[in-house]
Amino acid sequence: MPYRFHSAIKALGALVPTASVVFVGFFGTTNASAQSERELDRADGAVIGLWEPFAPPENPVTEEKRVLGKILFWDEQLSSDNTISCGTCHIPSEGGVDPRVGLNPAFDGIFGTPDDLDGSPGLIATDVDGLYIRSPLYDLEPQVTGRRSMNNHVSMYVGNLFWDGRAEGDYIDPVTGETLAISSAALEIQSLVPILNDIEMAHQDRDWASVTTKIANAKPLALASNIPQDMLDAITANETYPALFESAFGDPEVTAARIGFAIATYERTLVPGESPWDLWNAGDDSAMTPEQQLGWTLYRGSTCNNCHTAPLFTTNNFIVEGVRPIEEDIGRAGVTGVSFERGAFRMSTLRNVGLRDRFMHTGMIETMDDVFDFYAHRNGLGPLPENRDFRLNSPIVFSPENEAIVKNFINTALTDPRVANETFPFDRPTLHTELDTPNPMITESGVMGTGGYTPKMIAVVPPNIGNLGFKIGLDFALGGAQAWVAISSTPPVDGLVLQDELVGPIALNGMGAGDGFGTLIYPIDNPAMDGQTFYMQWIVADPSAPDGFAYSQVAAVTPFCSMIASCAPSCAADLTDDGELDFFDVSAFLTLFSKADPAADFDENGEFNFFDVSAFLIAFADGCP
Asked: For 148-165, what is the mean pLDDT?
C-alpha cells in the first residue's frame, strides 16, 4: 500500500478521532480504526499490517464454532470414503497447499504432453452406491483436480475464492435455498464446494442428506492422531458431532449450512501475521536481518510490488499471466463471460511461499528460480502473449546479486514460523493417510491369471468401526468372471487367505484379460473387532490360472474405534462392576441377553443373536487390565 495512502488514513483518523472509518477496496470491508493502531510513522514508510478479518454479521466468530470448524476441516470422514479432508490439500507447513503430486492430462486429455498439470489427488471414482467405477482418465486410481490447490493463508481477506473467483456473492443454504449471509461470505461458499465434488471428496451424485447423516453418526476425528489440545478438549466435552454442533449453534442439528459456517469461522482465525516482515513492520528493527531489509527495499521498488502488494502480498486481482495457452483454461472468464478476463487467474499471496514447492494454477513451475526465470522471459520460460497483462510485456529483471537478495526476502521474511512449525492456530492432527504404517496394509503378491495379469487389491478406505461403507476393490482381473473374497483372522498361508468366511460370488465388470474389476462393501460395525486384525483376498475364477483360480494381493485390516480411544470400556465383560471376571458376569450376561437388555447388545447393532454372545466371550477372554 503506498505510503501516501497510509498517511491519508492517519490524517483522517486525526480529524475524526472517534470515527470508525470503513475501508472498502480490493481487500474487502474492515474497520480502519483497528488498522491505525498498528501503524508506525517510520521514516522508511511502514505499511498497514494485517487486520482482524471481517466476518458476516450472520456468522459471528465464537470459540465453539471455531473449534468445530477446525475439527471438521481436518476430519477425513467428511469425504465419502474417509480418505480426504479439507486440510489434506492445505497443509500449513507446505505453505497452505497440497504436498502430494497428482498428474492431470488437462486440456488434451493425453498424459505426457506439455499441457499436463500438477493437481491434487482425490478419490477413486465411485458411483452413488459407493462401488468403484472406471474413470476415463484414471481408471481405478485416484482422480486428480484440474488446478493446483491454492494456499488458504489470506483467504479471509478475499471477496471471491478459487483461482477463478467463482465462490462469491450471497451465501445460500444449499438445501433450503434460503439466503444466509449477504456479504463477505466467500469462505462459507467455498468451504462447501469440494465436499460434493466427485473428484475431490465425493462419490457420484452425493447429496447433503448423505453428508449430514454421516457426520451426525461419526465419531469426531476418529481417523486422526496427535490431535491438538483445543480439539481434544472440545471432543472430550462433546463426544459426538451433534453435541459439538449444539455447543456451537445452540441445538444439535447437523446441516450443510452450519458446516460451512463453522469451517469458515476456523479459517478466519488463520491469519499469518507473525512473519519477520510483520514484526519488523510493527516496529521491531531486529526482526529482519539486514539482508532481508535490503530485499524488502529492492522488492518494494520493483514491478513485483505492483501485483504482490503488502500487507497481503497480493492485490487479490485476477491477472492473465500466460502460463499456458488460454484455450486450455479460460479462468475467470468462465465465471464472468468477460472476454478480456479469458485466461485470468487470481494472484496468489507470497506469504509463506518459501514453504511451497510448485507454483501457478498449473503447479508446473517447480522452483522459485523458475518463477524468476518466467517473469524475466529467460531460459525458455515466459508468459504467452494472448490477453497478457501489460505489466508482463517487459521482462522483470534484477541483477544476479539483487535477485538473490529478493529471493531470500520472499522465501524467508514472509514466512510465519507458526505456519512453518504448525503451531497454534496452524496446528493440526496427523491424518490417517499420513500414517507410516497404512491400515489396511497390502501384503503378499497374488497369483496371476489370464494374460499374465495378477488381480490387484484396492484397499484404501480406513477400517474404523462404525464405517458402514468400508470396502475393498479389485482391478486387473478377468472381465466378466465370478469372484469371491476370502476372509480370515489367521494370517495367510503360502500367500493365500484361509476361507473361514467366503463372500460371493461377485460378478466382475469389464471384458477380457486384465479388464475385470469389482467392489465388496463390508460394513465394520462390531466393537468387538477393535484391534483385531483380519485378512481379505479376492479369488477369481480364471481358467488360465493355476487350478482355475487367480488370487489378488492380501489386505491386512485392523478395525479401530478411533485413533484416540477404544470402542468399549476397558473391561466390557465385567457386568457386575467388581473388577473381576467370573461366573457371576456370565450369569449377568445371560440374564440381560434373555431380556434383550441393551447392555447385552455387545455388537451395538440393536439385535440380540450369536454375534453378541461371541463378542461377550471375546471380551471375557481378554480379561480386565
From this structure: 94
- For residue 33, being part of any structural domain is answered with no
Beta-ladder partners of 344: 331
Of residues 555, 473, 356, 461, the one with CA closest to residue 84: 461
Q: Distance between CA atoms of 456 and 510, rounded to whole angstroms?
A: 14
Tell me how far apart the alpha carbons of residues 286 and 416 are, in angstroms, rounded to a whole number: 16
The residues, ordered by sequence, that sit 6+ positions from 173 with a Cβ below 8 Å of its Cβ are 179, 180, 255, 256, 257
The whole-number average pLDDT for the span 212-218 is 96
Query: pLDDT class for 329, splitting at 50, 70, 90?
Result: very high
Residue 552 sits in a domain whose CATH number is: 2.60.40
Q: Which residue has the cell 465425493?
A: 202
Is the same domain home to 232 and 319? yes
3 state SS of 247? helix
CA dist list (Å): 488 to 525, 537, 547, 615? 17, 9, 21, 17
Can you tell me the distance from the alpha carbon of 77 to that of 257, in angstroms, rounded to the nearest whole number?
Answer: 18
Contact by Cβ (8 Å): 495, 558:
no
C-alpha cell at 286: 531486529
In this structure, of 6-20, 163-177, 227-241, 281-295, the range with the lowest mean pLDDT score is: 6-20
Which of 435, 464, 488 marks a domain boundary?
435
What is the span of the domain harbouring residue 443? 437-557
82 in helix, strand or coil? coil
What DSSP assignment string belongs to 432-487? GGG-SS-SSEEES--B--GGGPPPEEE--S--BTTBTT-EEEEEEEEET-EEEEEE
**Per-residue pLDDT for 466 more than 50?**
yes
- Sign, CA torsion 558/564/565/567: negative
For the chain, give percent helix, strand, coil, nearest 5: 30, 15, 50
Over 90: is that where the pLDDT of 109 sits? Answer: yes
Query: If you count DSSP H runs as helices and E runs as strands, how many of each does the chain have, helices first?
Result: 17, 16
- The verdict on residue 282 lying in a domain is no
Same domain assignment for residues 387 and 464: no
Residues 529 and 610 in one domain: no
Closest Cα partner for 90 from 136, 154, 134? 154
Are 513 and 599 in a shared domain? no
* Total number of domains constituting the chain: 3
Cα end-to-end distance, the chain, whole Å = 64
Q: Is the dihedral of CA 200, 201, 202, 207 positive or negative?
A: negative
* Cα–Cα dist 306/317, whole Å: 11
- Determine the 3-state secondary structure of 86 from DSSP: helix
Backbone CA torsion sign across 416, 417, 419, 425: negative
* Per-residue cell: 67: 473449534
Q: Per the domain annotation, does 406 fall within a domain?
A: no
User: Taking the model in full, what pTM does it have?
Assistant: 0.85
The set of residues, in sequence order, having a beta carbon less than 8 Å from that of 2 and lying 6+ positions away, is none
